[in-house]
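Sequence, structure tokens reproduced for absentees:
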Amino acid sequence: MKLKNFTILIFSIALLLGVLIYWREYATRDQVTLIQVLLWQLGIWIPWILGFLALDKIEKHGRNTKWGLPLLLAGGLLLICLHFGWFFGLSSTLSPYLDLEGSKFGVYRYFFIFWTLIDIGLVWFVVDKLRNPNPQEIEPSIKLELTRGGSTYFCEPSQIQLLAAENYYTKLFTTQGVFVMRKPLKTFLEVLPMDSFRKIHRSTIINLDYVAELARGNGSTLEVIMKDGTRRRVSKSFVKEITQLFRERTY
């Protein structure tokens, strides 16, 4: 699900609720304008866009792990609580219905029921869309254009075994051989899928699908042994993360 589509959804919810509330509270129309109600509703629901980004990030980090869905649901529950607090705080200071007869803290009692139901519905909707995207929403796999000896090769991420930094260049070890690109290692983390590629050292990124073994050395040192026998040391700052990652991916 794209952020643009979700933003349109949130704006639609805010505008629709604004119109319905203004129509429902017909007795206060001489004191409250439709524009005031619409702006109030936009202020209440726009923070959900940040909530969508947060859930999207949680889903990407937890993808293909047993903790993925529980973390996503926990994040959704936290968002409902935070949004409830935001709704209460904003309404008690900026609601156009503040201090009007029958309202308390700028809202009427039925507001809380509808808001809670909509929040629960949004969490369910976002979790479902993030976990089961439509085929049209799945981004096409990238291909890297590599050159060697005057020939051009097109390499998919699944063909890359590991990447190693060498000064201002990055060496790519692939199923088609070794290639060198004049790009820093960190740029590849922005385009390669996180569920397959992880950084294990400031100069090394590995494809988890090509790892054959994790080997313990002296003390707390750790080495990754690739399927072709290549050995790469894991930096101390990544040892815990890599160990936990493989523990979650195995049965």
Observations:
- The domain at 144-249 is CATH 2.40.50.1020 (OB fold (Dihydrolipoamide Acetyltransferase, E2P)).
- The chain has two domains: 3-137, 144-249.
